[in-house]
Specification:
Blueprint (H helix, E strand, L loop, with lengths): L11 E8 L3 H7 L11 E9 L2 E9 L5 H10 L4 E6 L2 E7 L5 E3 L21 E7 L2 E5 L15
Antiparallel strand pairs: 1-3, 1-4, 2-3, 4-5, 6-7, 7-8
Bound molecules: cytidine-5'-triphosphate (CTP) and zinc ion.
């Protein structure tokens, strides 16, 4: 029997197949809670799925931007983004890291040019593995181990 953990939504975005334990980080990426967001949000954690446990985040009346989706790909590479309109899933795609990520992760090397207050250089990373996510600084080649903690 298919158990219903949280209600279906009429309009908005369902982020499904989030790596179990990462839902709170996904909320943080989306700026929830926050003064600019008044959407109704529901969260389910450790839901049983075909392949182990997963988290789910449903945000009503909101669609995500590219930056937000790239950040989610860094912490939950198997997540799917489902766009819901009038209760129907009208779009579904898996998150996918681009080959380069610019301006969304801070380099872990304090002397990296991308961390220099004098230089207007945005951080830039080359993606060396999409799942599990591994990235390497374009400037200093340092590979951050704690990607989730370094998301700007
Ligand atoms: N969903 C929702 N509200 C709706 C429609 C769907 O909250 N009105 C949620 C479902 O609960 C599910 C996700 O959106 O978590 C994707 O829905 P659907 O594609 O119908 O589910 P599955 O076929 O199980 O998805 P997948 O194959 O991606 O696992
Ligand atoms: Zn660097």
């Amino acid at each position: 029997m298919k158990e219903l953990k949280i209600q279906p939504i009429r309009n908005g975005t369902v982020i499904d197949h989030i790596t179990a334990g990462q839902a709170v980080k996904v909320l943080h990426i989306l700026g929830i809670p926050g003064s600019t967001s008044s959407s109704i949000v529901s969260v389910a954690m450790n839901v049983r799925s075909r392949i182990g446990r997963k988290d789910i985040v449903k945000v009503e009346n909101r669609e995500l931007d590219r930056h937000e989706v790239d950040k989610i790909a860094l912490i939950a590479p198997k997540a799917t983004i489902n766009i819901i309109r009038n209760y129907e899933v009208v779009e579904k795609h898996r998150v996918e890291l681009p080959d380069e990520i610019v301006g969304i992760v801070r380099c872990s090397n304090p002397t990296c040019i991308s961390n220099s207050p004098q230089e207007p250089v945005k951080s830039k990373f080359l993606v060396i593995s999409k799942d599990p996510p591994r990235i390497k600084c374009y400037y200093c080649e340092r590979e951050p181990e704690d990607i989730a903690e370094r998301i700007i």
